[in-house]
Amino acid sequence: MQTTTLYSEGHRWLMFGRDNSKPEKIIDTNQYMIISDKESILLDPGGTELFAPMLAAVLKHVSIEEIKYLFASHQDPDIISSLGLWDQVLPKAKIYCPWLWEGFVRHFGMNNIEYKAIKDTGDSIHVGNIDLQLIPAHYLHSSGNFHVYDPVAKIYFSGDVGAALETPGAPFFVEDFNSHIEKMQLFHQRWMPSNKAKNDWIKRVRSLDIKMLAPQHGRIFRGKDVQLFLDWFESLNVGIASNS
Amino acid sequence: MTENHAVQTVAAARIASELHQAQQIARQLAISSKNARAIVLRAGSKAAGLAVIANFYDELANKTIILAQSINHTAINISAHSVNEWRNSTTLDQLAKASKLAADAKFKGDIDENVKRIKIEKKNLDARFTRLMNELYAKLDEIQQHMRAIDVIAVTSKLEAVQTGEFRGHLVEMADGIQTMANRIKEHVTHSISLLDSAR
Ligand SMILES: [Fe+2]
Ligand SMILES: [Fe+2]
Description:
The complex is a heterodimer.
Chain A: E1 2-9, E2 11-17, E3 31-36, E4 39-43, H1 51-58, E5 67-71, H2 77-80, H3 83-89, E6 94-98, H4 102-105, E7 114-118, E8 123-127, E9 130-136, E10 146-150, E11 155-157, H5 177-191, H6 195-206, E12 212-214, E13 221-222, H7 224-235
Parallel strand pairs in A: 4-5, 5-6, 6-7, 11-12
Antiparallel strand pairs in A: 1-2, 2-3, 3-4, 8-9, 9-10, 10-11, 12-13
Chain B: H1 2-43, H2 48-101, H3 109-161, H4 168-199
Helix pairs in contact in B: 1-2, 1-4, 2-3, 3-4
The complex binds fe (ii) ion (FE2) (2 copies).
């Protein structure tokens, strides 16, 4: 599992991904960890297949007791099917997840971890010395869905929004926005169901000061690429699948 | 160990279904025993010896129903238990992988501690599993004994039936029916035992 540091001024943001041992046919995912003081949170910790490399990677930075929280943006297997395993090693942790998915996510196996249901309008999580905002992003793509915004680091974790389908070993950051579009287009058109939800989200996110937009698949957008992405997404027609 | 848990989970679930069928037959057996009693009653003094036998039937059939129910319960318990053990050993496998990958990690020791704890849990689960399996064997064995007893009674009642004149045909037919049902239950139980043996 490869690791890169996104921010390190007081508290830290780490990104894990591009795991060499990942079975070929499962989609590559980015996992994030925020560490502040003696507490840390894992954002979208990933699927069962990634549990062992993730645990190994994480323990290079924090002890297991310091992992106090998990966050699952939605219910998908690539997001949180590892829950049954984390549950065994983090018995005192809490998972923040949309209220909508509680009865479903528990199917992954949850005997110890505590479920903190996020209400539709969002919430905030206090980790160490920082406050993270849980921003509603329903129908992008999941019907109960949240992103995480850190107003100090100005990093916005955007879940499946901004995702790109990449070849193995792709770089962590977008270098050339225009050539990146083709890797994102189908993903957004097909997985995102609602133009209305999309435009509503864009309006909300434009009011935030974002230096990095960090998706769960593909590459991170920095600086002006964040605005370029929002503009591109705004003009995109989504929900394109037809039944005939 | 993991494939073994899968096999045990499936075997226990199959046993539960075998025993469910055995239970249905035992219900029919209980009805037949009541019919036998009614005939014996009509035969009056000619069938005094048969009255005792008919009561036996009834008792054994009812005991079998209760026992089959309890086996069913134990089997489902075992199945759920295997799933737990299965999950437990999956976690251990994953932690072993993580431990290898974390060779140079600052907090690698945290993995070892978890492995230690989960291994203790696993030991407890194993012990409970063995207990449940023994319980299941014992109960299956008890059902087999009931069925053998029913078989003996059926043979005896056919002999006794000779003295009942016009009721003889009825009683022999009834005893044959009871024997057939007992044999069918025996088959289900024997199959269950071999499923259990092969899953061990
Ligand atoms: Fe998803
Ligand atoms: Fe995803």
